[in-house]
Design goal:
10 helices, two-stranded antiparallel sheet, mainly alpha
């Protein structure tokens, strides 16, 4: 394996899983000729299963090698992109953005669009709660401090595993992708979330497995919220009735 190998594998993995084909990203179900079928979002999707498999791959190739590759090729350009990606997982940006989206739905008179914002916010909050609990109980040391990826100090304040920024970004991305009926927005939101994940590695704040698990937590949190609150289908030019309340 070349020196570029491990980091390239992480990048390809995120591209394959988190920028899914439209056929995989959409959750609409064609109604039966006999009886209408409510659209549903599978809790464990093909993307989720793939991410779980990639965690094993990350362990095999080594967090240390991925970190080395990322830092060796770090540049002014990657740092600039990382500053954008990091902001997408920050609550200081997420809260105003969701609030603005909710207000836009209010002005447009779209209760469905408002509920998409609520779903996304609930998913992000759940992902934050789960990742925060794991962070402080597991106590993995961050790569900019630790000598290697296998340094854990439970309840010490070390909080590398998993990545909270990535969990928030993928909770938002999955919520929006699952509840919009176009394909281009799926690529946009998953691409933004992937940028957040890669930014955490670029900035030497997280190991590769931290961001992979963070992505999985965000994805599953959004799927759980959608199942509990019911799906909403929104298009870029209007709202289609596709509710399960």
């Amino acid at each position: 394996m070349t020196a570029r190998g491990p980091f390239a594998i992480v990048a390809i993995a995120f591209h394959a899983v988190l920028l899914p084909l439209p056929a995989l990203a959409q959750t609409d179900v064609v109604p039966s000729a006999v009886a209408p079928v409510q659209p549903s979002t599978p809790f464990i999707s093909r993307q989720t299963a793939t991410v779980a498999g990639l965690l094993l791959g990350a362990a095999l190739f080594g967090d240390g090698k991925v970190r080395h590759e990322a830092q060796e090729h770090r540049s002014t350009t990657s740092n600039s992109l990382a500053s954008v990606g990091n902001s997408l997982g920050e609550w200081t940006l997420v809260v105003p953005a969701l609030g603005a989206g909710y207000l836009a739905g209010e002005i447009a008179g779209s209760s469905d669009f408002k509920r998409v914002m609520l779903h996304a916010g609930a998913a992000a909050a759940l992902a934050t709660g789960i990742s925060s609990g794991l962070k402080y109980s597991i106590g993995r040391m961050r790569p900019d401090i630790a000598g290697g990826p296998a340094q854990f100090r439970p309840f010490s304040g070390s909080n590398s595993f998993p990545s909270g920024h990535t969990a928030v970004a993928f909770a938002l991305a999955t919520s929006i992708a699952d509840e919009t009926d176009d394909s281009w927005s799926d690529y946009a939101v998953y691409g933004a979330a992937t940028l957040t994940a890669m930014s955490r590695i670029n900035d030497n704040r997280h190991w590769a497995s931290d961001v992979l698990v963070g992505a999985l937590i965000g994805h599953l949190s959004a799927r759980w919220v959608t199942r509990q609150m019911g799906p909403v289908s929104v298009s870029p030019v209007g709202v289609s009735v596709n509710l399960n309340f």
